[in-house]
Structure formats: structure tokens, C-alpha cells
């Protein structure tokens, strides 16, 4: 399996509007971060998109992605779903809407906000047929499992995808490590984890929590994501253990 990191930044991206790079070196291209989305791809070329970030159009163009086989959402916060309209070109030429999956709570909120995407409107086709995760076990050759994670006062969905004897976990926007998370993520080949900053945060994982999750899960490789302007790529990569990779836009990694 292959992981393609479309975006690696927090909700404001790096730099923030106003050319605010914080502690990040503007001369390092890996510090230029769009909002988080990833693609998981099997050896057979099946692609699962996780989240429709605010920057989705440019991410798909930059990585020459013109087709996905399904879309999964972690939650309904703007930086994770407000690029949803950029799925329209992927509906062209299809006989049916794109399959989409989310928790029951996230699905309900997405349908309220983007009703035209899931029901069509004014002669436009439905873009996505949205289903909940309760009965999902296999899709397009992937084994799919999920867990609800604390995200401050709300919840977000963490995913484990398996195919071709390999596994990738995508766990973003969590503020606490639970026993259910550790159980589902245990032994994963690649763990993509929330890692907003070094200092603790009320709704996100900080560096120590991200590294702890990787250790408790015995992950083969750990990829840090959802990074803010305090997380300079080179400085952070120099201080983390050898199996930890600081994520960046365009990162490709084989599980």
C-alpha cells in the first residue's frame, strides 16, 4: 500500500494569511503546508481519499490525481470537509455517485451543510452516496476499521486500512489516547498521527502525545501531521526518533 499526503497543515495552513511563518523556515519547501487530506492506494491502483480539505483542488492538481474510488471523512470541521465541491469533476463520466463513508454523527452534519452534494439539486447529479460506517468491513479490496476518538468536546474518526498484507492508520484531530485507539492501531505498519505543536492543546495531540501513541501501538513508522507554524520541518525531524517522519505536502510512503 502507498500513502500520499496531500496536505499536512493545521486549519490555517503554513504560512498563515499575512505571510506568517512562525518558527518555520520559509526557504524550506516542506514547511509550506496546506490543510490535511491523504490518499491510501493499493497495489491494484484503488484509491481512498480521506477528508476533503479546504485546499483539495490544488492538492489533486499538484499530485495529478483525477480519480478516487471512495471518500472517507474523519469529522465535519471546516478544514477537513469544506473542499467537498472539488469532488465534482470526479463525478463526471460516472454512472453513479462516488461512495462516501463517515460516522453517523459526521454523516448527519455533512448532509445538513452540503445537501446538494448528497441529494443533487437543480438538475445537478448527486456527487456522493454517503453511508455510515457501522457495517463497513471491506471496500475495493481494502479492509476498513474505525474508532471514535476524543477531539476536545467532540469526536473524530480514526481509520485503519489494510491491503496487500500491509496496514495504514490515519488518526488526526484527537486530544486523548484511548484504549480502543491503541487496540485498533496495534502493530500498524504506518501510523499517521495528529501532532499540532510541542505544547499541550485542548483539542489536538502535541508532540509527546503523538510519539506516545506510536510507542503504545508499536507502529513500524510514525508520520506526524496537522502541524502548525511552530513546527519547523528540519528542526523537528532532527529531534524525533528514527522511525518518525515529519509529514509534508506531497509525501509518498510505502507501507
UniProtKB/TrEMBL annotation:
Residues 34-226 form the Metallo-beta-lactamase domain. Keywords: Hydrolase. It comes from Alteraurantiacibacter buctensis. Pfam families: Lactamase_B_2. This is MBL fold metallo-hydrolase. PANTHER family: HYDROLASE C777.06C-RELATED, HYDROLASE C777.06C-RELATED-RELATED. InterPro entries: Metallo-B-lactamas, RibonucZ/Hydroxyglut_hydro. The keyword Membrane does not apply. Signal peptide: none annotated. SUPFAM superfamilies: Metallo-hydrolase/oxidoreductase (SSF56281). GO terms for molecular function: hydrolase activity.
Amino acid at each position: 500500500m502507498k500513502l500520499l499526503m496531500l496536505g499536512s497543515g493545521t486549519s490555517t495552513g503554513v504560512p498563515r494569511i499575512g505571510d506568517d511563518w512562525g518558527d518555520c523556515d520559509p526557504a524550506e519547501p516542506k514547511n509550506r503546508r496546506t490543510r490535511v487530506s491523504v490518499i491510501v492506494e493499493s497495489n491494484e491502483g484503488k484509491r481512498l481519499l480521506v477528508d476533503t480539505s479546504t485546499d483539495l483542488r490544488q492538492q489533486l492538481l499538484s499530485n495529478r490525481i483525477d480519480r478516487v474510488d471512495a471518500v472517507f471523512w474523519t469529522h465535519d470541521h471546516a478544514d477537513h470537509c469544506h473542499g467537498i465541491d472539488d469532488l465534482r469533476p470526479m463525478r463526471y463520466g460516472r454512472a453513479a455517485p462516488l461512495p462516501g463513508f463517515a460516522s453517523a454523527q459526521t454523516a448527519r452534519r455533512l448532509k445538513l451543510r452540503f445537501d446538494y452534494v448528497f441529494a443533487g439539486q437543480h438538475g445537478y447529479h448527486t456527487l456522493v452516496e454517503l453511508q455510515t460506517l457501522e457495517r463497513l468491513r471491506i471496500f475495493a479490496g481494502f479492509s476498513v476499521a474505525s474508532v471514535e476518538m476524543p477531539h476536545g468536546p467532540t469526536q473524530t474518526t480514526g481509520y485503519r486500512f489494510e491491503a496487500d498484507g500491509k496496514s495504514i492508520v490515519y488518526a488526526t484531530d484527537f486530544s486523548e489516547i484511548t484504549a480502543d485507539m491503541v487496540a485498533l492501531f496495534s502493530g500498524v505498519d504506518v501510523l499517521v498521527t495528529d501532532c499540532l505543536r510541542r505544547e499541550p492543546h485542548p483539542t489536538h495531540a502535541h508532540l509527546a502525545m503523538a510519539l506516545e501513541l506510536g510507542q503504545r501501538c508499536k507502529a513500524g513508522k510514525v508520520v506526524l501531521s496537522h502541524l502548525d507554524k511552530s513546527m519547523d520541518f528540519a528542526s523537528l525531524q532532527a529531534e524525533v526518533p528514527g522511525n518518525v517522519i515529519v509529514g509534508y505536502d506531497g509525501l509518498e510512503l510505502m507501507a
